[in-house]
UniProtKB/TrEMBL annotation:
Name the UniProt record assigns to this protein: C3H1-type domain-containing protein
Compositionally biased region (Pro residues): 10-23
Start and end residues, zinc fingers (C3H1-type): 146-174
One MF term in the entry's GO annotations: zinc ion binding
Swiss-Prot/TrEMBL keywords: Metal-binding, Zinc, Zinc-finger
Provenance organism: Aphanomyces astaci (Crayfish plague agent)
Length: 242
């Protein structure tokens, strides 16, 4: 039995992806990076004309030296207050439009808002112009005992010290005397105290049998004492040793 044909039409095949463009020599030619807007400035090198992911400056690379007049004449513009470089004059002009004048009266300094804020704090702030001052700091006071008052352990244990008079510690027996007194007090306290007997699990299980055996032993001793079992009788021939 023939199946009915479906009226569904398959979608057309996707377009063929051609290989990337190559130069006349047959080598792959990478695409050219896009150009950012004129107001964009890279945060790594403080330059414009390229994106931050296309920046060739390494993270640990030192800041670039300020350009000379010959470099500025060839197209490198530099903003001295903000310490920024620009590759195109349009970027430099856009940056200059963001400058603000210093808020202090009579000051002609102008730069970006962040630089002006830092300048105002350092040049016109509360501590501006005071410079560094030397402050006398009192030395740390140690309330602990000095070395001369601490007994020498070697002298206390052996009675002599190999350092002799050069030893920084005290050659006295106060430490040993105090230790002996403390040890004697501890021994006396241990002798007066009764240690608590800790019974084991086996002893707890056999407690009834142990008490029964003790009663039997005591009854045996009582019988021997009452009947004078070990005393000799007149019928026994006992030699008395003088």
């Amino acid at each position: 039995m023939d199946r009915p044909q479906s009226s569904y039409n398959a979608p057309p095949p996707p377009p063929y992806h051609y290989p990337p463009p190559t130069n006349p020599g047959g080598m792959y030619q990478p695409p050219m990076p896009s150009i950012p807007p004129m107001s964009y400035v890279c945060r790594k090198c403080n330059l414009g004309g390229h994106w931050i992911h296309d920046c060739m400056k390494k993270p640990n690379q030192q800041l670039k030296q300020p350009p000379t007049k010959s470099q500025q004449s060839h197209g490198d513009w530099h903003c001295e207050p903000c310490e920024k470089h620009f590759a195109m004059k349009s970027q430099f002009d856009a940056h200059v439009l963001t400058h603000e004048a210093c808020w202090a009266p009579g000051c002609d300094f102008s730069a970006s808002k962040r630089v002006v804020t830092s300048h105002h704090q350092t040049a016109h702030g509360q501590y501006a112009g005071s410079g560094l001052k030397e402050i006398e700091v009192e030395g740390q006071k140690f309330h602990g005992p000095s070395l001369s008052s601490i007994p020498c352990k070697q002298f206390v244990a052996k009675g002599t010290c190999k350092r002799g008079d050069e030893c920084n510690f005290a050659h006295t027996g106060a430490l040993s005397t105090a230790q002996d007194k403390a040890k004697q007090q501890y021994l006396k306290l241990q002798a007066t105290q009764v240690k608590e007997h800790k019974s084991s699990l086996l002893r707890k299980l056999l407690a009834k049998d142990i008490d029964k055996e003790h009663r039997h032993i005591l009854q045996s001793f009582r019988y021997l004492v009452e009947h004078q079992f070990f005393q000799p009788t007149p019928d026994d021939d006992v030699e008395v040793l003088e």
